[in-house]
Structure formats: C-alpha cells, structure tokens
Design brief:
The two termini are 49 Å apart. A hairpin with a 4-residue loop joins strand 4 and strand 5. The N terminus is likely disordered. It is globular, with a radius of gyration of 25 Å. It contains eight helices and five strands. The protein has a three-stranded antiparallel β-sheet, with no helix packed on it. The protein has a two-stranded antiparallel ribbon with strand order 1-2. Helices cover 63% and strands 8% of the residues. 31% of the residues are buried. It is mainly α.
C-alpha cells in the first residue's frame, strides 16, 4: 500500500517509521537515569532504617508490650522474603520499569501509614507492606543500576546498589535519631521527606530508559512448576538424557533446576 504527500508517493514503511518515531517516549540521559534510580533505591532503605529509632519512640508514646515491638521488626523480614521468593525475578520477564514503578507506588502506602499512625497496629501493617515493596524492588534495582551504568564502568552500578542498601539503612536510622533528638515532630518530618524522595524516585524511574524487554509467559517465575518425564515401558533405571527436546520438558525445566528420580513411579521430576 502507498500513501501520497505533496512531494510524491510515500511507502507504507515510511509511514510506519514515522508513527513509531512519534510514539517513542522521551527518556532521561543515562547519567540522570542512573542517579534517579540510585535515589529511588536508597529511599526504600532510608524508610526501612528510619523505623528503628522511631519504633522506640512509638513504644514510649503508646505503651505497647515488647512482643509487639518484636513483631513490628519481624513482619518486615517476612514480607521482604515472601516478595523476593515470588517476585524477585519478575523484572527479567516483564521489564525493569513496570516492577520498579509499582513497587515505589506501593512504598508510598507504608510511608503514609507511618505518617498518620495512631497506634502500633498501623505500624505493623505498614511494615508488612514496606517489606513486600522492598523485596519486590531490590533485585530489579540492583540489576537496573548495573545496566544503566556506563559501558566499561559497570562496577559503578554494583557500588551504588550496595551503598543504597547498607547506606540507606544506616543513614535512615541516623537521620531519624537526629530528628527525634532535635525536634518534637520527628515522625512527621521523617516521613514527609521520605514521601517526597519516593515520589521523585518514581518520576525518575518512569522517565528512565527500559533496559529489559518483556518476554512471553512473564508470570512463570511466580508459579512453582514441575515437569515429569516417564521412560519407555519396561525401563527401571533413570534415562540418560531425560531433558531432551523430545521429552517436551526442555523449555519448562532449564538447567539448574532440582531433579529427582522416583523408582516407584519411574519418572524424573524437576521443580523450582
């Protein structure tokens, strides 16, 4: 099919190219994108670290039992581990930006909960959500920081990832502790600043270039999967190459999965 312009005929490929050019979204330069991603990643752990001294302040204000203080620390780890195990590799399949943007938006929820909390129940609920958002974003952030780093300086992304995690936790506790010592509204100041940092980080991630393309069957990492291979009738010993393409298990059972042989059912099983 051909289209016409004032200058003459225009091919359909030229029209398509023009459409793609107009649809291409503007992104930040690589240096700004890397800085924004590092800021967003650090904001996650600043918020996690800030709760350490603030929880002590909450206990003084609300007089709840020590067991609830312990619970408030524990639920963060539970939410974090649950998210890492189920969502840790999701960005390898759907792209970095979709995972990071959603995790940062979710991170705003606990920050707001901590800001308006009136008892320890609000804080525990916020800590669960905080753990989930941090766990979902950590693997994607550490990957995208390396991918956005300049060629030949990929180690910079690794350094920024480590500094954002450990430095964020330490700096969050330190700054929240200083706020408690210097102001009577430490909670309000701390989480207002963290909300602003999280919003800025979210905007930076939205405007950053995508470094990972979406792949089919993107939800596979979230679903435990097993595939079985049964050898021909009459064969009792394990077959030598059960994961050959002819078995139909190659795409579902990549190298590195745990494999077990069941003599009772004469089947190989691979499970993640």
């Amino acid at each position: 099919m051909r289209a016409w312009s004032l200058q003459g005929p225009v091919s359909s490929s030229q029209v398509t190219t023009g459409k793609h050019a107009t649809r291409r979204r503007r992104t930040l330069p690589a240096g700004l994108a890397l800085t924004g991603a590092a800021l967003a990643f650090t904001s996650l752990y600043l918020a996690a670290g800030a709760l350490t001294p603030l929880l002590v302040l909450y206990r003084q204000q609300w007089d709840f039992p020590p067991s609830l203080l312990t619970l408030a620390f524990a639920v963060y780890a539970i939410g974090f581990l649950a998210a890492v195990l189920t969502l840790g590799s999701l960005s390898d399949h759907v792209g970095r930006s979709p995972v990071l943007v959603r995790a940062l938006v979710v991170q705003l929820v606990p920050n707001v909960l901590f800001l308006v909390a009136s008892d320890i129940g609000w804080v525990i609920a916020g800590r669960i959500v905080q753990g989930v958002s941090s766990g979902a974003a950590t693997a994607a952030f550490t990957a995208v920081l390396v991918e956005l780093a300049p060629a030949g300086k990929k180690r910079l992304g690794t350094i920024l990832g480590g500094a954002g995690l450990t430095g964020g936790l330490g700096a969050g506790s330190l700054l929240a502790g200083l706020a408690i010592q210097l102001t009577p509204t430490a909670n309000v100041i701390t989480f207002t600043v963290l909300i602003v940092l999280t919003v800025l980080g979210t905007v930076a991630v939205v405007l950053s270039p995508e470094t990972m393309t979406r792949t089919p069957d993107a939800l596979r990492p979230m679903v435990p999967h097993a595939c079985r291979f049964r050898p021909p009738p009459g064969r009792s010993s394990p077959p030598p190459h059960p994961w050959s393409p002819r078995s139909g298990c190659s795409p579902a059972c990549p190298e590195g999965w745990r494999r077990t042989w069941s003599a009772a059912s004469s089947t190989w099983t691979a499970a993640c």
